[in-house]
Amino acid sequence: NPSLNAIGRAGFVGWPTDAKLAALRNAWFEAPDLPTQQALCRDIQLQFWQDPPYVPLGQFFQATGYRNTLSGILRGSFALFWNIRKA
User: Fold this and answer.
1) Residue 7 carries which DSSP code?
2) What is the mean pLDDT of the chain?
3) What integer pLDDT is reported at residue 47 of this predicted model?
4) Across residues 5-30, what is the average pLDDT?
5) Residue 71 region, left (φ>0) first, then alpha (ψ -120 to 50), else beta?
6) How far apart are CA 79 and CA 70, in angstroms?
7) Of 39, 41, 43, 61, which shows the fewest CB atoms inside 10 Å?
């Protein structure tokens, strides 16, 4: 989640600053194995709720129509226009 990249002024305008969260996120990327990643993920979630860097205010779903003459449509959280072929 890019919103967990709490690097302050080094990030986008208005980016949160949380050195502990940033360090945990970087440690997760460098973790040598799955159990270490899982432990770091728990620590990241705890730190997130100690000092939330953002508050999700909603969710939306984009209505999408598909033609039966197309194949290879990839599912995702945004439109993906590759891999599509005429059926």
Assistant:
1) B
2) 88
3) 94
4) 88
5) beta
6) 15
7) 61
Q: What is the mean pLDDT of residues 56-81?
A: 82
**Beta 70-71 vs 85-86: how paired, if at all?**
antiparallel
pLDDT-wise least confident of 5-9, 21-25, 75-79: 75-79
Alpha carbon separation from 68 to 10, 76, 79 (Å, rounded): 47, 19, 17
- Which whole-number Å values give the CA distances from 80 to 2, 74, 77, in the listed order? 20, 6, 9
DSSP 70: E
Supply the angle between the helices 34-50 and 19-30 in degrees, to the nearest 10: 170
Q: Which two tokens stand for residue 30?
A: 């460098």
Specify the 3-state DSSP secondary structure of 71.
strand
DSSP 11: S
